[in-house]
Design brief:
Layout: E1 8-12, H1 18-30, E2 35-39, H2 46-55, E3 63-69, H3 74-79, E4 86-91, H4 99-106, E5 115-116, H5 122-134, H6 138-152
Parallel strand pairs: 1-2, 1-3, 3-4, 4-5
Helix pairs in contact: 1-5, 5-6
Bound molecules: 5-O-phosphono-beta-D-ribofuranose.
Protein backbone atom coordinates (compact mmCIF):
# COMPACT_ATOMS: atom_id res chain seq x y z
CA UNK A 1 0.00 0.00 0.00
CA UNK A 2 2.95 2.30 0.61
CA UNK A 3 3.62 2.68 -3.15
CA UNK A 4 0.12 3.93 -3.93
CA UNK A 5 -0.70 7.61 -3.60
CA UNK A 6 -2.81 8.14 -0.48
CA UNK A 7 -6.52 8.82 -0.94
CA UNK A 8 -7.22 9.53 2.71
CA UNK A 9 -5.19 11.75 4.99
CA UNK A 10 -5.41 11.17 8.73
CA UNK A 11 -4.29 14.10 10.85
CA UNK A 12 -3.66 13.62 14.54
CA UNK A 13 -3.40 16.58 16.90
CA UNK A 14 -1.01 15.07 19.44
CA UNK A 15 0.80 11.82 20.27
CA UNK A 16 -1.83 11.36 22.97
CA UNK A 17 -4.49 11.02 20.23
CA UNK A 18 -2.64 8.23 18.41
CA UNK A 19 -4.13 5.19 20.18
CA UNK A 20 -7.59 6.31 19.08
CA UNK A 21 -6.66 7.54 15.61
CA UNK A 22 -4.65 4.46 14.66
CA UNK A 23 -7.98 2.63 14.64
CA UNK A 24 -8.92 4.68 11.58
CA UNK A 25 -5.80 3.48 9.81
CA UNK A 26 -6.63 -0.13 10.61
CA UNK A 27 -10.08 0.21 9.04
CA UNK A 28 -8.67 1.83 5.91
CA UNK A 29 -6.20 -1.07 5.67
CA UNK A 30 -9.13 -3.44 5.82
CA UNK A 31 -10.70 -1.69 2.84
CA UNK A 32 -7.33 -1.48 1.10
CA UNK A 33 -7.59 2.27 0.80
CA UNK A 34 -4.19 3.93 0.58
CA UNK A 35 -3.78 6.49 3.32
CA UNK A 36 -1.25 8.52 5.24
CA UNK A 37 -1.11 9.62 8.85
CA UNK A 38 0.54 12.79 10.09
CA UNK A 39 0.74 14.47 13.43
CA UNK A 40 0.16 18.21 13.46
CA UNK A 41 -1.62 20.56 15.79
CA UNK A 42 -3.90 23.42 14.79
CA UNK A 43 -2.60 25.35 17.78
CA UNK A 44 1.03 24.31 18.12
CA UNK A 45 1.88 24.04 14.43
CA UNK A 46 -0.71 26.01 12.46
CA UNK A 47 1.60 26.65 9.50
CA UNK A 48 1.97 22.92 8.81
CA UNK A 49 -1.81 22.46 9.02
CA UNK A 50 -2.27 25.32 6.58
CA UNK A 51 0.21 23.85 4.09
CA UNK A 52 -1.24 20.34 4.39
CA UNK A 53 -4.84 21.42 3.92
CA UNK A 54 -4.15 23.74 1.00
CA UNK A 55 -2.09 21.14 -0.90
CA UNK A 56 -4.24 18.07 -0.10
CA UNK A 57 -6.42 18.18 -3.20
CA UNK A 58 -3.58 18.59 -5.69
CA UNK A 59 -1.78 15.69 -4.00
CA UNK A 60 -4.76 13.47 -4.80
CA UNK A 61 -6.37 13.10 -1.40
CA UNK A 62 -10.15 12.57 -1.48
CA UNK A 63 -10.99 12.75 2.23
CA UNK A 64 -9.24 14.10 5.31
CA UNK A 65 -9.89 12.66 8.77
CA UNK A 66 -8.84 14.87 11.68
CA UNK A 67 -8.67 13.73 15.29
CA UNK A 68 -8.03 16.09 18.17
CA UNK A 69 -9.06 16.60 21.75
CA UNK A 70 -9.72 19.44 24.19
CA UNK A 71 -10.37 22.74 22.31
CA UNK A 72 -10.22 20.76 19.09
CA UNK A 73 -9.83 23.05 16.12
CA UNK A 74 -7.87 20.76 13.82
CA UNK A 75 -10.81 19.57 11.71
CA UNK A 76 -12.27 23.05 11.45
CA UNK A 77 -8.94 24.60 10.51
CA UNK A 78 -8.51 22.03 7.74
CA UNK A 79 -12.10 22.38 6.52
CA UNK A 80 -11.57 26.13 6.24
CA UNK A 81 -8.73 25.55 3.77
CA UNK A 82 -9.97 22.79 1.46
CA UNK A 83 -12.97 21.79 -0.64
CA UNK A 84 -12.37 18.11 0.26
CA UNK A 85 -14.73 16.44 2.73
CA UNK A 86 -13.37 16.58 6.26
CA UNK A 87 -14.35 14.03 8.89
CA UNK A 88 -13.74 15.10 12.48
CA UNK A 89 -13.04 12.78 15.40
CA UNK A 90 -13.42 14.40 18.81
CA UNK A 91 -10.89 12.62 20.99
CA UNK A 92 -11.94 12.08 24.57
CA UNK A 93 -9.47 13.10 27.24
CA UNK A 94 -9.67 13.63 30.98
CA UNK A 95 -11.68 16.36 32.68
CA UNK A 96 -14.58 16.97 30.27
CA UNK A 97 -14.48 13.49 28.79
CA UNK A 98 -14.35 14.69 25.21
CA UNK A 99 -17.47 16.89 25.35
CA UNK A 100 -15.23 19.90 24.76
CA UNK A 101 -13.74 18.33 21.63
CA UNK A 102 -17.15 17.15 20.44
CA UNK A 103 -18.63 20.62 20.60
CA UNK A 104 -15.52 22.23 19.11
CA UNK A 105 -15.63 19.83 16.18
CA UNK A 106 -19.33 19.53 15.48
CA UNK A 107 -20.41 23.13 16.01
CA UNK A 108 -18.89 24.56 12.87
CA UNK A 109 -20.35 27.76 11.46
CA UNK A 110 -22.49 27.71 8.34
CA UNK A 111 -20.45 27.19 5.20
CA UNK A 112 -17.64 25.13 6.75
CA UNK A 113 -18.97 21.68 7.60
CA UNK A 114 -17.06 18.99 9.41
CA UNK A 115 -18.69 15.54 9.28
CA UNK A 116 -18.32 14.77 12.96
CA UNK A 117 -18.44 11.27 14.40
CA UNK A 118 -18.82 10.38 18.07
CA UNK A 119 -16.19 10.83 20.77
CA UNK A 120 -13.25 8.53 19.93
CA UNK A 121 -15.17 7.45 16.82
CA UNK A 122 -12.13 6.86 14.64
CA UNK A 123 -13.54 3.57 13.35
CA UNK A 124 -16.69 5.25 12.10
CA UNK A 125 -14.64 8.10 10.64
CA UNK A 126 -12.73 5.62 8.51
CA UNK A 127 -15.88 3.78 7.44
CA UNK A 128 -17.43 7.10 6.46
CA UNK A 129 -14.31 7.99 4.49
CA UNK A 130 -14.57 4.63 2.71
CA UNK A 131 -18.22 5.31 1.95
CA UNK A 132 -17.36 8.71 0.47
CA UNK A 133 -14.76 7.06 -1.75
CA UNK A 134 -17.16 4.21 -2.51
CA UNK A 135 -19.55 6.59 -4.23
CA UNK A 136 -17.23 6.55 -7.24
CA UNK A 137 -15.06 3.47 -6.57
CA UNK A 138 -16.77 0.15 -7.31
CA UNK A 139 -14.16 -1.98 -5.56
CA UNK A 140 -14.50 -0.04 -2.32
CA UNK A 141 -18.30 -0.05 -2.62
CA UNK A 142 -18.28 -3.83 -3.04
CA UNK A 143 -16.10 -4.13 0.07
CA UNK A 144 -18.55 -1.93 1.95
CA UNK A 145 -21.44 -4.22 0.96
CA UNK A 146 -19.48 -7.20 2.30
CA UNK A 147 -18.69 -5.26 5.45
CA UNK A 148 -22.36 -4.38 6.00
CA UNK A 149 -23.30 -8.03 5.60
CA UNK A 150 -20.63 -9.04 8.08
CA UNK A 151 -22.13 -6.62 10.60
CA UNK A 152 -25.47 -8.37 10.30
CA UNK A 153 -23.66 -11.67 10.88
CA UNK A 154 -22.18 -10.38 14.11
CA UNK A 155 -18.78 -9.23 12.91
CA UNK A 156 -16.93 -7.41 15.70
CA UNK A 157 -14.87 -4.35 14.84
C1 LIG B 1 -5.18 18.65 21.51
O1 LIG B 1 -4.93 18.71 22.88
C2 LIG B 1 -4.69 17.31 21.08
O2 LIG B 1 -5.41 16.89 19.96
C3 LIG B 1 -4.89 16.43 22.26
O3 LIG B 1 -6.09 15.68 22.18
C4 LIG B 1 -5.01 17.41 23.42
C5 LIG B 1 -3.94 17.23 24.45
O4 LIG B 1 -2.69 17.23 23.81
P1 LIG B 1 -1.37 16.88 24.61
O5 LIG B 1 -1.21 17.94 25.65
O6 LIG B 1 -1.59 15.51 25.20
O7 LIG B 1 -0.28 16.89 23.58
O8 LIG B 1 -4.49 19.64 20.84
Amino acid sequence: MAEEAPLVGILVGSPSDLPVMQQAGAILERFQIPHEIHMMSAHRDPDSVDEYARSAEERGLLVIICGAGRAAHLAGAVAARTALPVVGVPVGVAHLGGADALYSTVQMPRGVPVATVGIDGAVNAAILAAQIIGVSDERVRASLHEFKSSLAEGFKL
